[in-house]
Design a protein that fits this description.
single chain; 441 residues; mainly alpha
Length: 441
């Protein structure tokens, strides 16, 4: 990783990661297709209502995964393989205990959570059919995502890709069986998604028992406080995911109040397009973290610059193509998820898409900046970018813009948040770009 050709190494990590995340995105979209067409728009809304809890739990997993894997990557770059395995082992043991505890707590308080966010009537019934089932499986996802980061740091990105692809295929197949064939409704979607999350962990775990593996599960040495101290470097990911959860919660509340359950359904459909955008950019940014952290440990600043340029070009190309596709064929894309007679949901969704497309490009640039700052252990800047794009500015704009522009203000809030965040992200990056870091060596 420290001597390979930058372009070849970049694509060795990015292509499997991007294909894997696209597989996950496509599975999510197909999930929406089955639910929207065979169950109904209210069920789509129920999935959206459940998202904030997923984001919170997923954020905890990412915090452990990113914070500890970046430290592990730096230790491996310095040649300290024994301590790298020690950090890895501590992180895995902690996330296992934490994931089980958090999901059990939420599972026992589902009704109270739905009371808190004012979910009632048919939407509440559908959410109670979906959410408790997913919570039983989420510990497997949280541990699996953490393991996935260490697999990539241990230079096996193809296995990470394979795990995501197999998981996606399982989700799609089970969606068809449980929803279409067995007619289990939204329960079937929950069981299909949960089983696919378990598959990720089952595919990844054997890596750490292979002879060529550098990282191994060992009996931890020293205080576990070292892991919690390392978590500050992954705090931006937790802030980002949990803030996204809160933002979705607020958007759902406003859309429910303004448009009813169909408003949430339209936001869910738009969310599928946003997911593709975010997943592709995240795949590039996520892959760069493992590469840059090792080169940063070895002080190879010119190579870091090369990787960043490749990442920037890749994200811009993907996001521009996606944006054009969504702008040119919005109605055809929406028809994938809802029936032709669901005219009101379609109308709201088309309006949403026509205003939200700038968020695709700027979110990718913001994520690249945040990932880079995390990889060079600048958690404050990375965290600021994360919380600005996922919480501070969306909250400001969602409450202010509707007073100025009416319902259009709801639709443009996310785009405005990403654009303003980019101004700050660009400044943070310029202060910490590789050429600046090299001057302090």
């Amino acid at each position: 990783m420290l001597v390979s050709n930058p372009i070849m190494l970049f694509f060795k990590y990015v292509i499997p990661s991007m294909l894997g995340f696209l597989a996950v995105s496509s599975a999510s979209i197909i999930d929406g297709y089955f639910v929207g067409n065979y169950v109904g728009s209210v069920s789509l809304a129920a999935i959206s209502v459940s998202f904030p809890l997923f984001n919170l739990l997923f954020g905890f997993a990412l915090m452990f995964a990113v914070g500890s894997s970046v430290i592990t990557g730096k230790l491996m770059g310095e040649g300290n393989k024994e301590e790298a395995s020690n950090v890895f082992s501590k992180a895995i043991y902690i996330i296992v205990v934490l994931s089980i505890s958090l999901n059990l707590l939420l599972y026992l308080n589902v009704d109270r959570v739905l009371d808190l966010i004012n979910v009632k009537d048919e939407l509440r019934v559908e959410t109670l059919n979906y959410l408790p089932i997913i919570l039983k499986f989420l510990p497997f996802l949280m541990v699996g995502i953490t393991v996935d980061y260490f697999v990539k740091v241990d230079e096996n990105p193809n296995l990470s890709f394979l795990a995501l692809v197999i998981s996606s295929l399982v989700n799609i197949i089970l969606d068809y069986i449980f929803i279409v064939k067995f007619d289990w409704g939204i329960n079937g979607a929950a069981y299909a998604t949960g089983t696919s999350q378990l598959v990720i962990l089952l595919v990844l775990l054997p890596h750490f028992f292979m002879k060529k593996t550098t990282l191994r599960l060992i009996k931890p040495r020293g205080s576990f406080l070292s892991i919690f101290n390392a978590l500050k470097n992954g705090s931006s990911e937790f802030v980002n995911e949990s803030s996204v959860g809160i933002t979705i919660l607020v958007f759902n509340y406003i859309l429910l109040k303004t448009f009813g359950p169909l408003g949430i359904a339209s936001f869910t459909i738009v969310g599928y397009f946003i997911t593709i955008s975010i997943m592709t950019s995240y795949a590039v940014s996520d892959s760069l973290q493992a590469i840059i952290s090792k080169n940063y440990g070895a002080k190879y600043f010119n190579r870091m610059k090369s990787f960043l340029k490749l990442g920037l070009i890749s994200i811009l190309c993907v996001e521009i193509v996606l944006t054009l596709f969504v702008i040119i064929t919005p109605e055809s894309l929406i028809n994938i998820f809802i029936n032709d007679n669901d005219i009101k949901t379609k109308e709201i969704t088309i309006n949403f898409i026509s205003y939200i497309w700038p968020a695709f490009i700027f979110s990718g640039l913001n994520m690249l900046s945040s990932a880079y700052l995390t990889s060079i252990q600048k958690p404050l800047y990375s965290g600021l970018i994360a919380i600005m794009r996922s919480f501070i500015f969306p909250m400001i704009f969602i409450f202010i813009l509707p007073f100025i522009f009416g319902n259009v203000g709801i639709f443009i809030a996310l785009s405005c948040a990403e654009i303003v965040t980019f101004i700050f992200a660009f400044r943070f990056f310029m202060k910490n770009r590789p050429s600046v870091l090299a001057k302090f060596i």
